[in-house]
Design goal:
Layout: H1 8-17, H2 25-31, H3 35-39, H4 48-56, H5 60-67, E1 68-72, E2 78-82, H6 106-110, E3 113-118, E4 121-127, H7 136-143, H8 145-150, H9 156-166, H10 172-178, E5 187-189, H11 190-196, H12 200-210, E6 214-217
The protein binds iron/sulfur cluster (2 copies).
């Protein structure tokens, strides 16, 4: 399946309205030592690589080589993801700040807002695994992102694919070993990543994720 790209001006509008930080977030993320940077797969929305490449002033091919891998689903559908098995290439290794803060992937920007697909609908929830969710001020701040995100023309099918891995925790060391070569933008198959989670070393992280407390919001 090929998804229609979200227009660049919609990404611009989103970032102009929602900065992703209320002034408290960086301190909390630093104290949490960036847990999500070591466990999660970062996903780009359809058309988001075009937007981010344009913000960086490079072409999409260069952007893919520098920052992305591809996750291929069972039916051949491809999803753009931030490089796997490495710390995100946008993460400053000294300050631990995100170097694309103003135009970072929207799923990064709205986290701890995550989603669940239920029947034909998509519900947005706050992931209590994230320390930001523990502070009411931050929870309320991120709730503001839900109607904005819901307004983007993201097909339900795209959510269905992404939900199959989005709430899982991955061991980046295992992913790193799993990289087959040195290709800048590598294709991974979802099933091979899920198979990595089956061994004992993954059981603990899976359990942590499955114990997430969630809070559901009606949009
Ligand atoms: S977003 Fe949440 S999990 Fe990620 S570093 Fe910040 S507090 Fe930690
Ligand atoms: S783009 Fe920024 S927020 Fe997203 S994973 Fe990379 S460093 Fe973290």
């Amino acid at each position: 399946m090929i998804f229609e790209k979200i227009p660049i001006n919609m990404f611009n509008n989103f970032h102009n309205i929602f900065s992703g930080s209320n002034g408290k977030t960086f301190k909390i993320c630093r104290e949490c030592e960036g847990a999500c940077e070591h466990n999660k797969i970062g996903t780009l929305l359809p058309g988001e690589k075009d937007y981010m490449a344009s913000r960086l002033g490079i072409n999409v091919r260069e952007f893919e080589d520098l920052y992305l891998d591809v996750l291929e689903m069972d039916d051949g559908t491809r999803i753009d993801v931030l490089k796997l098995g490495k710390l995100c290439p946008f993460l400053n290794r000294k300050t631990f700040e995100c170097e694309c803060r103003e135009f970072k992937p929207i799923l990064c920007k709205i986290y701890p807002v995550v989603f669940k697909v239920e029947g034909e609908g998509v519900n947005f929830i706050i992931d209590s695994w994230c320390q930001l969710s523990q502070k009411e001020e931050c929870r309320n701040y991120f709730k503001n992102a839900i109607p904005l995100f819901s307004a983007l023309p993201v097909p339900a099918e795209w959510f269905r694919y992404v939900i199959s891995y989005d709430d899982l925790c991955f061991d980046y060391d295992q992913l790193k070993k799993h990289r087959k070569g040195t290709k800048p933008c590598e294709v991974f198959y979802l099933q091979e990543l899920l198979d990595l989670l089956k061994d004992e070393s993954k059981a603990e992280s899976l359990q942590i994720c499955s114990e997430m407390e969630i809070e559901k919001f009606m949009v």
